């Protein structure tokens, strides 16, 4: 079920607040806002949210049998990648890349953002997708579906239905087939092994190397200049060619 409101501060904050008040929300429930006045991005940044894009959050009630919760971030990334890829012309498919862990890039520019927040055994997954506008983000190139394909149907209502369907599919695959299948599907949509990247770690350090694939837990394996391989579990990744 998709509940749409005209404006709210942040759909993620709303769902976290409702869960905190003891409300239980079912898997498949989405709260979508046509615009947000206090959209939240990763790392405490703001997510500028004018009308015309997608801003929506959904619920995953974790089950004992589920794979590790943090890998849901890649489930969300794949769902957005599918939705964006489907809406662009076939010849543009190669330009749509997942960047670890869940950024979706078109021609190297960020087109979407995903923010996972946990409340007990519930994961709130918030997704913003630039349909008509590409708000500026410091030090990042941004784009929108309309910028990439002027013939695209920018109807946010249909785009939202498509996103919910892709997420539901990806969630079912994650539950049924586990992380082995998830990582293989993610890797097929992501920057190839050998891509030059740099990682901005939470302590401020920046480390460069080449992407050496995913670790068994979904971490990013980074091959350093001296040949050693480090596994990174948190950090902002830049593709060197991104600039
Ligand atoms: O910084 C990022 O890349 C993550 C951005 C996540 C934005 C979405 S929009 C819907 C949901 N509500 C929020 O306040 N943030 C997320």
Helix content: 25-40%
**Overall number of structural domains:** 2
> What is the second-level CATH architecture of the largest domain?
2-Layer Sandwich
Portion in beta strands: 25-35%
| Cross-sheet strand order for the largest sheet | 1-2-3-8-7
* Gyration radius from CA atoms, angstroms: 17 Å
Domain BPL/LPL catalytic: 1-175
Pfam families: BPL_C (PF02237), BPL_LplA_LipB (PF03099)
Keywords: ATP-binding, Biotin, Ligase, Nucleotide-binding
Catalytic activity: biotin + L-lysyl-[protein] + ATP = N(6)-biotinyl-L-lysyl-[protein] + AMP + diphosphate + H(+)
Structure description:
The protein is α+β, with helices and mostly antiparallel strands. It folds into two domains: 2-188, BirA Bifunctional Protein, domain 2 (2-Layer Sandwich), CATH 3.30.930.10; 196-242, SH3 type barrels, CATH 2.30.30.100. The chain is built from four helices and 13 strands. The strands form three sheets. The chain has a five-stranded mixed sheet with strand order 1-2-3-8-7, with helices on both faces. Strand 5 (103-106) and strand 6 form a beta hairpin. The radius of gyration is 17 Å and the shape is globular. The mean pLDDT is 93. Biotin binds next to helix 1, strand 3, strand 7 and strand 8.
